[in-house]
Design brief:
The protein has 71 residues and is an all-alpha fold. It is 54% helix and 0% strand. It has a domain at 18-45. The chain is rod-shaped and about 100 Å long.
């Protein structure tokens, strides 16, 4: 109506081009789930990380060996 009042029964919200307005939120949820699934799958393909001895043990051992070799 030209006077700015709402007409009864008329939806003034912008309509989504996809249809009934539910598809975009469904698409967002589906894309988020797909993204999480792909991320999980990518992490599963990585080699497992095992605890490896640090280089500090090697350095300490070498220093001890050098000290032992000195007169």
């Amino acid at each position: 109506m030209p006077d700015g009042r709402d007409e009864p029964g008329v939806d003034r919200r912008p309509q989504v081009a996809a249809g009934n307005g539910r598809e975009p939120s469904n698409n967002v949820v589906r894309n988020q789930r797909r993204s999480r699934r792909r991320h999980r799958n990518a992490l599963d393909r990585l080699p497992s990380q095992t605890a490896e001895p640090g280089h500090t043990d090697d350095v300490a051992g070498r220093l001890d060996d050098e000290r032992a070799m000195r007169p």
